[in-house]
Amino acid sequence: MIKVEKVTLYHITQRLKVPFTSSIGHVTDRDSILVEVIDSDGVSGWGEVVAFSTPWYTEETISTCFHLLKDILIPLVISETFEHPDELQEIFKRIKRNQMAKASLEGAIWDLYAKKKNVSLSTALGGVRNEIECGVVIGISSFSNMIEQITRYHEEGYKRFKIKISPEQDMKIVEEIRKRFPDLPLMADANSSYTLNDVERLKELDQFGLMMIEQPLAADDIVDHAKLQENLSTPICLDESIITSEDARKAIELGSCQVINIKPGRVGGLTESKKIHDLCLEHSIPVWCGGMLETSISRAHNIALASLANFTIPGDISSSSRYWEKDIVDPEIRSVSGKISVPNEIGIGYKVKKDLLKSIASSVTVLK
Ligand SMILES: O=C(O)CCC(=O)C1=CC=C[C@@H](O)[C@@H]1C(=O)O
Ligand SMILES: [Mg+2]
């Protein structure tokens, strides 16, 4: 039985080692809220709000998530007793969307649940792998800088390379990369920077043998994506368009994509992530785990999730040192030759450095 008694929210801001730019946003300082839940047996679990400070990727922000957590979701959870984190979906049903706020608390309760069951989060979720393959994302910057980064990460052994593209710099950069790395497992994320008027342009990308193109069209669209997919040989992968397993069902039915990127934050948590994973498995749609420039708490959740059977494509899971000077968990999360072992220890399998967290937190809010 789980009875959450106390929840602590740590608000931190960390400077990224290198700013991250996509076609829709630019991040230099990354705000995060880290969520620690403690239950009536004194067991603790960790989660993370992965929303950004402003609503450029989805409509949620760090501030909306703080409000939702403090004023609505945490009071709801504290008043309930439950057996399994899956039950949170019923408890949260009355609250529309706000997936990242929900996911942060739900993820912390999954960690706590796994610890109470004495198993790793991977085992609790039904994971089948003891290591996962790592991919890396290269944000928009000068061509030479992007090539330099790809070269370095390639030498480090990363298994999949995602670049950010927009109509302003698509063909040229893909061509440049292909000249140097003809066989690189390469994909491109457009973050909705195209419309159906760009079909001819996108068709030209087919010649470069990309693994997939991620979210070429609008975030709220699955109809135009189906039309586009009919015209492209490059598989479309949906990111922003998939907020629930129902969205995934409809997108699969319409033929809007051939791959889905699952980010637990975007879809409201690990339970929904699992549902999407299972549905995709049934329909032979491979999935991979997307990143959110997160700390190692969310990274640890992603590693556990990516150990499920249908995560057959390396995700955006890279070493924590890719973004951060200091890791907030022990041991540090590191990709070695493009792989990370899935921890066997209970829960997320990494110890959160609470002293470090307290020393960098701009606010600590305790709710009971
Ligand atoms: O976590 C990472 O390493 C990068 C993640 C990443 O590429 C993204 C995170 C958040 C918003 C985006 O522009 C982008 C994405 O759309 O997938
Ligand atoms: Mg994306």
What does this structure look like?
- The chain has 368 residues and is of the alpha/beta class.
- The chain has helices spanning 62-78, 88-91, 99-117, 121-125, 143-156, 170-180, 199-205, 223-231, 245-254, 264-267, 270-282, 296-305, 354-360, and strands at residues 4-21, 26-39, 44-49, 131-133, 135-138, 160-164, 186-189, 213-214, 236-238, 259-262, 287-289, 329-330, 339-341, 351-352, 363-367.
- The strands form four sheets. A seven-stranded parallel sheet has the order 5-6-7-8-9-10-11. A four-stranded antiparallel sheet has the order 3-2-1-15, sandwiched between helices. It has a two-stranded antiparallel sheet with strand order 4-13.
- The longest helix has 19 residues, at 99-117.
- The structure holds ligand 164 and magnesium ion.
- Its cofactor is a divalent metal cation.
- Pfam families: MR_MLE_C, MR_MLE_N.
- Pathway: Quinol/quinone metabolism; 1,4-dihydroxy-2-naphthoate biosynthesis; 1,4-dihydroxy-2-naphthoate from chorismate: step 4/7; Quinol/quinone metabolism; menaquinone biosynthesis.
